[in-house]
């Protein structure tokens, strides 16, 4: 194996492996360093997202949703299934098979694109060299360009030390083999809600402890308020806002959680406890101090708008840098850097990166919220359309949620779109595309949408911006 490359990518998550593939497509001799191992101790590409994040959680969410439909929705369709039984180990095995197939797929793409895959922990040295440690073995490689894509790790909290037996992180929460009767979750953000939703649908009594007083702070308030009602009154999630966990005590088969709420101390006992309080950049010991790589106050690699670090020829992307920790954001940064290195003029607009929460109903948004529009003193107008008035949604037995559109009152340019409802994760792409082309709400309103489809709700929301929705009272 050569020890000199055009590009070395450190990390093989969605940011890193995509960067490596695009570099190779552009004719660069590329290596990718990654230290992830699967349950059998074998190298496994794909990073957190593929191994213990985005993909396995969506596999379980889909399984759990089918159980919920059988238990609660099939009867409305005239379908009788009797008592539903759940084989959780088989559900977990299916999830693992999906992960395995996809990680093998990335390995196949590396081989097809002639990318050198190097297993071990990468560490940046001076003169654009990368030291790779694999057990007791150490090797050093060099490249003209280095791309740091080391991802992120779950944030640990002293009051709830993860053992992945009774107190679990996001990875442990994906490998529970029995449905816990009572499940506690610290954190009611994206990860906490998704994991809580999985086990709630499978029959757990789920309580979420959220230290903030506000539910889903980044989400448009009109959408988050409606979502909170759906999750609590509709689905039975117990979401305790302003609840700060102060202590946990592990017993033989349970965890006692002590928390403060409105100045009073309370305690509850759970069969399992998930810690989902956020993630931090995985930048510990990724660079030799002599290199002088600049990190910010949160431990992220400091980069400019072109993903360049303070060292010439060294770039950083994905969860390791500023911005939302989203797989698709990291992937696009990977493509952007690869094409920049190749001398092209790539495009990347962080203002049109979509967000998705894969609960049921799903929540998705792009652009600014109404609250942000007010804070920025933008002259804006809004329109909305409820899924309760959408024929396809009702045919699917989906009666809640809405599409909300925010447009500039002077130019009519779309500034933000927020969706709570079925298939929101897919519907948001039309809004992203529209905003990429600087579309107006009128552009969307004059675009023909097939009937009956969920996308008509976006069409009607655009019409509603000017008070001319056709299927609701304006």
TrEMBL record:
Record EC number: 1.8.1.4
GO MF term list: dihydrolipoyl dehydrogenase (NADH) activity; flavin adenine dinucleotide binding
Reported cofactor(s): FAD
InterPro entries linked to this entry: Class-I_Pyr_Nuc-Dis_Oxidored, FAD/NAD-bd_sf, FAD/NAD-binding_dom, FAD/NAD-linked_Rdtase_dimer_sf, Lipoamide_DH, Pyr_nuc-diS_OxRdtase, Pyr_nucl-diS_OxRdtase_dimer, Pyr_OxRdtase_I_AS
Annotated positions binding NAD(+): 187-194, 210, 278
Localization per Swiss-Prot or TrEMBL: Cytoplasm
Residues holding FAD: 58, 122, 319, 325-328
Domain (FAD/NAD(P)-binding) ranges: 5-334
Start and end residues of each Pyridine nucleotide-disulphide oxidoreductase dimerisation domain: 353-462
GO biological process, one term: 2-oxoglutarate metabolic process
Catalytic reaction annotation: N(6)-[(R)-dihydrolipoyl]-L-lysyl-[protein] + NAD(+) = N(6)-[(R)-lipoyl]-L-lysyl-[protein] + NADH + H(+)
Heme keyword on record: no
GO cellular component: cytoplasm
Chief place of localization: cytoplasm
Residues at the catalytic site: 451
Annotated keywords: Cytoplasm, Disulfide bond, FAD, Flavoprotein, NAD, Nucleotide-binding, Oxidoreductase, Redox-active center
Alphabetized Pfam families for the sequence: Pyr_redox_2, Pyr_redox_dim
Note describing how the cofactor binds: Binds 1 FAD per subunit.
Enzyme class: oxidoreductase
Paired cysteines (S-S): 49-54
Misc remark: The active site is a redox-active disulfide bond.
Family: Belongs to the class-I pyridine nucleotide-disulfide oxidoreductase family.
Protein name: Dihydrolipoyl dehydrogenase
Organism: Arenicella xantha
